[in-house]
Amino acid sequence: MATEIESIDPIERGKLLQNFVMNSEAERLATFKDWPFAEDCGCIPAKMAAAGFYHCPTENEADVVKCFMCGKELDGWEPNDDPWKEHKKHSSKCPFLHSKSEREETVSDFLKTERDRQEQRIVKAVEVKIKEFLEQAAATREQMSNFSAGK
């Protein structure tokens, strides 16, 4: 009999595990090996990782980062940008912004942070599904209207 994690699609399982390891600042920092900014900038890898971001560049954007907690993606970084200020500016309700540092964090704090992270992930997934549903409902409504009007 397969366990729950084994029954998840392998690609989805990989994403879940990658997201979980991003709880660690060291793991987030390790993603910045190809970060396009030099050490004399405000947005150096250590500051980016400390602010909750990990580097996830795309083919078109070399400076895309994502918060492991709230999932907020940011790009278009300028050399003097402060990662903490940018994080707060674009996602002020992110629970990570209000949490303790890893050194101060207890197991209970970690579990609360992980619970909050999972809650954020689920809320985002539900919001996407609601948006898809509303778009499909509008399209169906329009088709029904056109059908009843004889179009």
From TrEMBL:
Signal peptide positions (record)? none
Q: Name one GO cellular component term.
A: chromosome, centromeric region
One BP term from GO:
chromosome segregation
Molecular function via GO: metal ion binding
Q: Where in the cell is it found?
A: Chromosome, Centromere; Cytoplasm, Cytoskeleton, Spindle; Nucleus
The highest taxon in the source lineage is Eukaryota
Record's InterPro entries?
Baculoviral_IAP (IPR051190), BIR_rpt (IPR001370)
Q: Which Pfam families match?
A: BIR
Sorted UniProt keywords: Cell cycle, Cell division, Centromere, Chromosome partition, Cytoplasm, Cytoskeleton, Metal-binding, Mitosis, Nucleus, Phosphoprotein, Ubl conjugation, Zinc
The answer to whether the entry has keyword Cell division is yes
Q: Which SUPFAM superfamilies match?
A: Inhibitor of apoptosis (IAP) repeat
Q: What is its main location?
A: nucleus
Tell me the protein family, please: Belongs to the IAP family.
Q: What is this protein called in UniProt?
A: Survivin
In which organism is this protein found? Stichopus japonicus (Sea cucumber)
